[in-house]
Amino acid sequence: MSVASFLNKIGANRQLALSLVFLLFGALHLHISLVDHYLYKTNCFDFGVYNFAFRDFAHFRISPCPLYHWEGDVTFLQDHFSLTLPLLSPLYWVMNPIFGTYSLLILQWLFVMFGGYATYKLILFKSHNFNLALSAVLVYFTIYCRFAAHNADCNLVIMGSAMVPVFYYFFEKRKIVPLIILFVFLILNREDVSLGIFFFCLMLFVIHRKNGRQRNLALYLALASAAAFIIMFAVIIPAVENPQRPYSLFNYAALGKTPKDAFFYVLSHPLETIKLLYTNTTGDPYFDGIKSKFYIVFFLSGGFMLLYRPVYLIALIPLVAKKMFNDDPVRWNVESYQGTEIASILPCFVFLTLNEIKPETIRRVLTTFVCIMTLEVTLYYMYRTHETYYGVNRSNVFSEDLYKMSDDVRIIRKIVETFPDDASICTSGHITPHLAFRDNIRIFPGYANARYIFLEKHGSVFPITQELFDSELEKLRKNGQWVTIYDYPGVILLRRR
Length: 497
What we know:
Blueprint: H1 3-12, H2 14-38, H3 44-58, H4 76-79, H5 84-88, H6 91-99, H7 103-127, H8 130-142, H9 144-148, H10 156-162, H11 164-173, H12 176-187, H13 193-207, H14 212-240, H15 259-268, H16 270-276, H17 290-300, H18 313-324, H19 340-354, H20 360-384, E1 387-388, E2 391-392, H21 407-416, E3 425-427, H22 432-435, E4 441-443, E5 452-456, H23 466-478, E6 482-487, E7 491-496
Parallel strand pairs: 3-4, 3-5
Antiparallel strand pairs: 1-2, 5-7, 6-7
Helix pairs in contact: 2-7, 2-8, 7-8, 7-10, 7-11, 7-19, 8-19, 8-20, 10-19, 11-12, 13-14, 13-18
């Protein structure tokens, strides 16, 4: 069979074409996650913490996470109030015997795949156009933030945002029971999600303002979202937070200390608020252009189509605002999970807009242009970006360096397999996710109660500096309480006498 006839056969068989797209991109994204973890490129924060909490919840516990040791006794729910991991934790008993510490990566991948399929179903339902729906899936899987999210390993935002297209599909199909179940899941995904769902439902209210049933449903969900947001920050978070370590993830000093302060600031200072969306508020020129890069990536990846249908921008308001108003410039970028919330829903908005374009010829041209530009932007930033907040950029799937196993990793893999399950271990960032399925795991230099200290000597020292890391390690070498078991150029293992 010739290549031409093979392609024609695929084009004539929609199910085959759809299956190939999901098989290709599903395998690609799963491959990236698993290889990163296998080669010890995943990080303690957030993946090591998630693995500890996943196992802890599966044992019906809410223990202080020892990986937060320098902040005191802080549980996972006191850092981020989210019930996603508790809800998923029964799967620990099914998946851990087979997949071990890869389990959450696989679950996250399933969320992403489900979001892609819902995107396809939504566009197909609204347009009755298979090519448009398939193009939406291509953009969903190839948009730059889909690859950049791998730099963050595993995150609640990646899981939750992938469910928004599913929520949208259930709403349009009027599947009330699964819609309500998913609404509750999203509200409980993270403490700030309810604000995003409020604006999303407000958008649906405007779109369906002439359809009484849909309009009222959107209104009820919007009101429920607003109530959930208020209850979360006024009641739940104060009730569960550690008094010695108050909730610290509302980092919007330019707007105020609380969501209430921020709300009134936005109303009373609209021009200053708008300015915050594009200016570097740190005073450090190193962060110049980060916000612009974010806008460029999404504008060229189909975002420009929303100028034709600006009602969809309503749903993006809180997603852009919480990124750009944040005190931490790391949040402004597209090099991690920070852009995933928009990347997950933007293809739906873009291709619903394209569905309204007439005539058909122009729609086809614009659809092709959106797909090509999304791929071009992704490839451009894959090769242009070399480092991120999390270390070496892992979004470039075509880089040979991402698949090379160093001698240090070979040594680490062998040593990790020797630790008893109940061993108390202090280790470094890239090793932690592999050893987090235990009660006693700490990140260096929190070795006070550790039986073993197992470290990479370079490149994995967070939350301290390399200088402090080297200084603490040198003290241990001279300390008679510790015996050096292995000491390689890049790896060291010590055991308490």
